[in-house]
Amino acid sequence: MPGLGMGRRRPNNIVLVGLALALILFYALRNDTPEAPKLIPSPFRTVTRTETKTVTNTVHVTTVLKPEWDNFQESELEEHRYRPDGLLEVNHDGPHPIFKLMKDAEKEWEKKVQGASKTLVEAVREYRRRYKRDPPKGFDLWWEYAMEHNVQLPDEYDQIFHDLEPFWGIEPSDFLEIQAELETKFDSYTIGKAIRDAPVGIITYAFTEGRYDHLIAGCKQIIALLKDIEHLLPEFRMTVSPHDGPNRLSDWGVKHATLEAAAAKTHIEREALPKVTTTGWISACPPNSLARRIPINLDKPPPPSSKKTFIYDHKKTMDPCINPDLFYHHGQFLSHNNGPGPQTEMIPEFSYCSTTLHHNIRIPVPYGWVSDVNPRVEDPEFNDKSDERLLWRGSNTGIFHATHTRWQNAHRDFLVRYANEYEGTVDVLMPNVKENERVGAPRKLKKSSINSALFDIAFTKEPINCSERVCPKLLELYPWRPFMGQAQAGEYRYVLDVDGNGWSGRFKRLITSNALIFKSTIYPEWFTDRVQSWVHFVPVQVDLSDLYDALMFFRGDGNGEGSHEDLGRKIAMAGREWSLKYWRKEDLNAYFFRLILEYARLMSKDRAAMSYTPNI
């Protein structure tokens, strides 16, 4: 009976309909309706994601989710690794390292400038804190000179301390004996003052016959520089090597013994110095150093590292004991293969430059000094310079080129070959990232596509410093271009500075320009503690493994894409300002003045009497 059956089910249908309406009303009034799940986009690139939810077999609801950049924090990026060899090892999940390197360097420089002593009392206290002794006699006169001539950073003379400290451990009478012997050795000249009221002049010299005019040239520049302060200087004698590079290779055991004696405020006699047991470059390195642990085989250079690195501590990267790769890449070392024998004692010879392996005492060389790049019209503003390639011109110095020398990998030869290769690829960190984006893995770029757009690097004129057999090979192997005048060079926005036979004498002129200077060197100089890499210039490793990455960060890729020219201009302008403010002739004299005061005290048999001991 259908009628009866329908009659019995109707109440159930009504109940079901009522329940359905109640449930619909219940959920409609609730505020906790399930939301679509939020997807957290990668903070490193713009991504549009599409999420699809199936409601029935035929209906789809699409939700477009956008990256939440506003909520991204720099802390979400990972940290780079700061290695003890002075290199930052890149973490590809971190930001481009140059952002961090510049920020940290600016903070360090600002701290140094703000913390400088402002009174003689503060300077004496800071001297005692750093060096654990009183300043030298005449320190008050030095302070007056520094203040009168607006010399900046009056505390930053640590290089003098490091150069002279080993000699504090030598018995004074032995020190004077060594100095007297040194004055008679060939290829040296001695300048000084026999009495206080005398001018600074040449006391003696010992040159190979016929080389006087050539070797005395640097001496004349120094004497001319010191004219302004000679009336303030005490009696002194300093023997100087006239050559470009250093010549006094240290023995670690000998130097360590003198440093220990100096720290204990005692002396060690010449006869008691440790015997030299090692030869070559590694003799200057500590027994547990990397250079001692890894055999140096110049016939089998180590392969390039697969890790991307940048310099964060320039001075550390100049030390072959912790960066033994330098032995394979610089003419200073390759010229002598595994290295000469070290000195059996500490010889107080001054030189125009020195490495961390030598104990030559470096001086503020006036060679190459300029007050400014003149005429100024030949040095356009950074943004007005028309050529965005990296410029370098120079002679093939740094090593003698002969069949028996390893000139192929010397620093200048390697540079010119490296920049003019058109076969193969190079891994480069892409510059088109922001400070809050991950730098990512490097990309392989064809050298044939980018080198001519990035570099204008060549030797000038014709080969020099080479044997008759090798000179023609150099002419075929490398590009040789005419000498470039200042006006033409002034059109380049980026300029590279590298060592020659010794330190670079052109750095002063280059950093005084409006260009951004990239600098590669193994020589800590008198101003190393008084300048800041990544604030005033861009430091580059000797093997040039970071050159592409650093250059492309500032100027962009071959087409200029992804550039950070504003940051490049910032460093270029800071470098020029630093040169005009911190590298004047007065600054050279302030360094020389303080160095001579310190050395005059060392030459005294009564060093305590040659100290400045105010009751402060």
From TrEMBL:
One Pfam assignment: Glyco_transf_90
Domain Glycosyl transferase CAP10: 318-606
Superkingdom of origin: Eukaryota
Name of the molecule in the record: Glycosyl transferase CAP10 domain-containing protein
Organism (species): Leucocoprinus birnbaumii
